[in-house]
Amino acid sequence: MQLQVKQEKMLIAGQWIAAEQTFDVFDPQDNRLIAKVPLATENDMLMAIEKADEAYLNNKYWPTYARMAVLQRVASYIEENKERYAETIALEGSKTIQEARGEVKRAIQTIKISAEEARRINGETINFDQSESGENRVGYYYRFPVGVIGAITPFNDPLNLVAHKVGPAIASGNAVIVKPASDTPLSALLLAEAFTKSGLPAGMLSVVTGSGRDVGDVLVTHPSITMITFTGGVDVGKKIAHKAGIKKVGMELGSNSPVIVLKDADVEKAVASCVSGAFTVAGQNCIGVQRVYVEKEVYDQFLELYKHRTSELHLGDKMDPLTDIGPMINEREAKRVEAWVNQAVVEGAKIQIGGKKERAFYYPTILTDVPSNAVIAQEEIFGPVVLVYSVEDVHQAIDQSNAVDYGLQAGIFTKDLENAFLTIQELEVGGIMVNDSSDYRIDAMPFGGVKQSGLGREGIKSSIEAMTELKVVSFKLN
């Protein structure tokens, strides 16, 4: 298919703006140039912040019904253009066309839920007379927007993870500036197009493309930015937290997700779920299955079936609807995964299937006998590799699951309610999926983790709570 190289513009305060310099966006499958995107400068970001601050002040009393109407129109616009959105996601990133279509569907839901949650930004009455000093007082609290939000987004869900930040921000009356991943800026720009076509007041949304070094630090440190919401790696997250100063910070920083399979589990269902959970989006998924702890009685059965199901996955052209796995985001990342696997093998791990790289493609890989202190066991792989271990019982599985510095989500397969509730209590994670892999999420649920997996919770309602402040009101009566 012959591709025409797009000359993109970025959105600053309602205006589509070019830049003197651009950067290239490539299709990771074959390294074809697909777009030239503005390389924003520090001055571009400063202008976006200034205009966002003005827009927020001009729309400080923007009514709920009007915010809802904009979001509803955005959802309709994406629905009407869903194939263009899906093709853009697939071309610039790692997703197959089928995975991209699924992401578009989720993004529409995210925006629709944001519109619905806008009507539920409520407060509560307060019983001031619970204190002796509170007699003859009545009051309440209500929520108001924080102001101007800086949103920094990753490459792996280039539309829906942007929607997860922009949707709640607009629903709660904030202005928002998005700095999308430089590998996948096109989907964020398409989302901005939907907002501009839907009557969003100018300045309430900007999408500033370019280098994190050039514009990211300005966004993070500027005093007019009252909140930073970031999804990405731990090292970058730590730097942002250090630089941000006294402002709200919400972070989703990745994981090393475990799944426990006990001897009473439906092994076939566990295998099917763990195949999908480990290898969807070429493993570049923060809640993807990375470690599987299988009770020894069913370990051999699980491993053989897991290898067989993995061998059936089709790796190839991501625009082919029959393809299961596309490329990683670039060859550099594929080389990193290859190096981690090779190092684990040197340290004693065994490759049961996979372990091969071709350009930016890395074959779905199952490892066994991986030392617990290996890099690939302790850190987030963010690639199509899964580690399978045999354990004596649920207690050993819990101990080993917790023996990393991450805690986003986990899964357990069992028919025993006592063991299910034991893992619910003991696993150090932000979400536990019972009889599902770790790779399950709906866009309305609170989403986030503990330890190095992040700060706070996303999900529409949770994000709106984070993007608003409480104001207490007390009336003293005569």
UniProtKB/TrEMBL annotation:
One of its GO terms (molecular function) is lactaldehyde dehydrogenase (NAD+) activity. PANTHER family: ALDEHYDE DEHYDROGENASE. Its EC number is 1.2.1.97. It comes from the Bacteria. It catalyses: (2S)-3-sulfolactaldehyde + NAD(+) + H2O = (2S)-3-sulfolactate + NADH + 2 H(+). The keyword Transmembrane helix does not apply. Belongs to the aldehyde dehydrogenase family. CDD domains: ALDH_y4uC. SUPFAM superfamilies: ALDH-like. It comes from Gracilibacillus orientalis. It holds the Pfam family Aldedh. Keywords: Oxidoreductase. Part of the sulfo-TAL (or sulfo-SFT) pathway, a D-sulfoquinovose degradation pathway that produces sulfolactate (SL). Catalyzes the oxidation of 3-sulfolactaldehyde (SLA) to sulfolactate (SL). This is 3-sulfolactaldehyde dehydrogenase. InterPro entries: Ald_DH/histidinol_DH (IPR016161), Ald_DH_C (IPR016163), Ald_DH_N (IPR016162), Aldehyde_DH_dom (IPR015590), ALDH-related_metabolic_enz (IPR051020). Residues 16-473 form the Aldehyde dehydrogenase domain.
